[in-house]
Amino acid sequence: MRVSFFITCLGDIFYANAGKSAVELLERLGCEVDFPPTQTCCGQPAYNSGYHKETLEVAKHMVEVFEHADYVVGISGSCVYMIHEYVHLFEDGSNWQKRAKALKRKTYELTQFIVDVLGIEDVGASYHGTATYHTSCHMTRLLGVKEAPFRLLENVKGLRLIDLPNRNDCCGFGGTFSVKMASISEQMVDEKVQHIEETEADLLLGADGSCLMNIGGRITRQGKPIEVKHIAEILNSRGEE
Amino acid sequence: MPMHIGEKDFRKRVSKGISDDYMRGAVRSAQERLQNRRAAAAEELGDWEEWRTLGQQIRSHTIEHLDYYLHQLSDKVAELGGHVFFAETGEEANEYIKQVIQKKNAKKIAKSKSMVTEEISMNAALEEIGCEVIETDLGEYILQIDDHDPPSHIVAPALHKNKEQIRDVFKERLNYKKTEHPEELALFAREKLREEFLAADVGITGCNFAVAESGSFALVTNEGNARMVTALPNTQITVMGMERIVPGWEELDIVVSLLTRAAVGQKLTSYITALTGPKQAEEADGPEEFHLVIVDNGRSKILGTEFQEALHCIRCAACINVCPVYRHVGGHAYGSIYPGPIGAVLSPLLSDYDEYKELPYASSLCGACTEVCPVKIPLHEQLIMHRRKIVEDEKKSTLAERVAMRGFEQIVHSANLYRTATKMAPFLTTPFAKNNRITKGPGPLRNWTDIRDLPQPANERFRDWFKKRNKQGGAI
Amino acid sequence: MKGSIMNRDRFLTNIRTKIGGLTASQPVEKPVWTVSPQKKVLKDYTPDQLVEVLEEQCQHIHTDFFRTSSNSLEKTLDEVLNHYGAKSVIYSNDERFVSYQLNPYFESSLSTGREIYRWNEKDKETSISFAEKADVGLTFSDMTLAESGTIVLFNKKGQGRSVSLLPRDYIAIVPKSTIVPRMTQATSYVQEMVDNGEDIASCINFITGPSNSADIEMKLVVGVHGPIRAAYIIVDDK
Predict the structure, then answer these.
(1) C126 reaches B (C-beta below 8 A)
(2) Which domain range does residue B95 map to?
């Protein structure tokens, strides 16, 4: 199966390891992975801030970048959802909208792709440790991927997964919200970190770099001994601590 | 701007909210209870999504034909002997209500809970002509006693107060002598208000739903105050926001069921009272005279726009009860009697962006509101639409943001520029980094790093790794 | 037309223009809704099953539940009134108190020192002032909703609104045949009357247990402005 990998801008700049793990994982599961090098950002920062004309240009670019792909697999539920949203940016019935629809149909978030398309729930990973998993809002509520990450994590040998209390609560990232409404965002991320601490897990996992950057940044600022990793890193691990 | 409450400056209101530990404790536990109850009530049905679909269909059909249904409603009410006044503004509504009251020479007004009368500042208008207006909903009563403290929630207006604060208010103002137990506080209010109900000349109610085909009005309550207000005084005035209407009783069933479940997790509240016209000749209790005031007050501006769905709202507050922003800042921070996600959508529409330009941004767009809305209003998407209007039509975004977004567009839709920019990131940020973390960012990064660390961009981007790996022979 | 309508044309024309309708309103056909989940609730339940649902729901709505036969109704009612310490009772002016033969009981109660008053729609003042001080308000249920535990009262003529509202406690006698699955059946009944151009009661009350409030810290307080306690007596039909 041929997969075109969508790294997302945060992944490219900050979380290269998550990307590497995802690529290795997909290959291990029998996919042939290519990386269209002209890909950029999904445009969500502009879209959510109300700059829709600007987003439209970004969307056109991304539609072109991935047009050749059989499948597009991204490592952020939020960015994948943004690609699905392109359909609404274009005029109804336009050629661009048709192309955006085609892109939507073949674009998946990593865990969603593994479970729903490859039909695999046990990726043969093993990792010794105690973790809790942050469900990001856009991935669960908007993209509708609720179960896939849990199915996969439950089958990781040696991993003890602890339920995160109030897991449906937002971490307070919200794109520009995190800087525009910094004081409110701070309260939200503090609450999230508190819930994570309550689990006494050593490791926080997530499938969205943006949430992890927010929560992780607050965790290190407060000097808490909790490690933060992208789910791909655990699914690709083969027994190392 | 009668809808407006509290301090003018948004940031001051937010800091005030965040630093109010009492309020935050009260809101947190209330949200938790209400969320659980709502979720249980929805789950119990087994087909909640179907109910929501039906609710959405009913609301959107009704609003699309609002003129027709209001026409039918008013015909029916008049046929039954009621008087209908259409008010384009709050002032017009208040003028009419004052006239009715003056004609009756009435002094004491008992009022059951109504957000629209808050919105048009009806109480103040009536007090100006020497009337005493008594709020009879327990929450509203508490606020009224406490120097007209504004409501912070559309269903539970005194949510921001804890029981100790309420005890102290009763003690100070009403010479209350008992404890802070809610049972004792409520019993005290029952006794106080009983006298008022019996003495009131005029009863004023809001309206949960009007039924066009029969000219009926449904009031959804738990305390029984709306029943008192409509059984005892000789004159009844019902004030409704013009969108609070359904075609027939079949539809009333659905919206009421959605409302009680979504608002408080009850199958039905203690009292759903459906009133049709003044009392009949052979009845003893009930009003002899009935007036209906239908209020626009900015609502028609919303019709025909991308925000029309906001008028589908049935005021259940489910969105408020799940909103994390509301949990931390409280209702008063919104500066509007309509707080939370629906308040952030509605307030700028009913008023304007000058007054409420920050509200559409007071959301992380987490979508919890959209997920629970019983009539499927896409609340978080409406907030994005507001942002778009602020940027494109109102041109009210900051210059810095416009420049940044313009730059963003240039960079991300050109593969080359994007590659250069991401390549530069580690070099530009190195001077600020320590242990691969940036703790004091330059310029716009400051707002981020004031609160959290930023990882130092890696020297080797993902794309560099992928390219190198392919050169070396690809997959392992 | 007995009433009046003010400012309507300008108001509705504005709405019509905004919505995008150009001509004066044509009659609107209500669409057929694509789903009807309300009709599936407790569908095909037998009367006895509905009674069970009602009994279970009463626990959630802080309402005492009693079941009796029409022959024992008098006895059960007496027990419940004693249980509630009812020294004064007001009941609605409803035929069914006669057909269920409760009048002799009311008369005999008077001799035991219990004050009993029948709502008199021709004497508002006495009726309300009695109701306001009464320990118990007593009515028959017109329709009873099993799902929510709701008594539906069509308040008209002798069925004063205040009987179920002002007294300290409220007792509803529920003939088993009045029990239906949910609100849907009650609203359909009213809808039918509306469609046939019949008058509906000026006040239709859906009463679900005693009054309550959660306005203080979202903690439930039972008994606010309306009755503080409520009881339903289910009775097999005459």
Answers:
(1) no
(2) 70-301
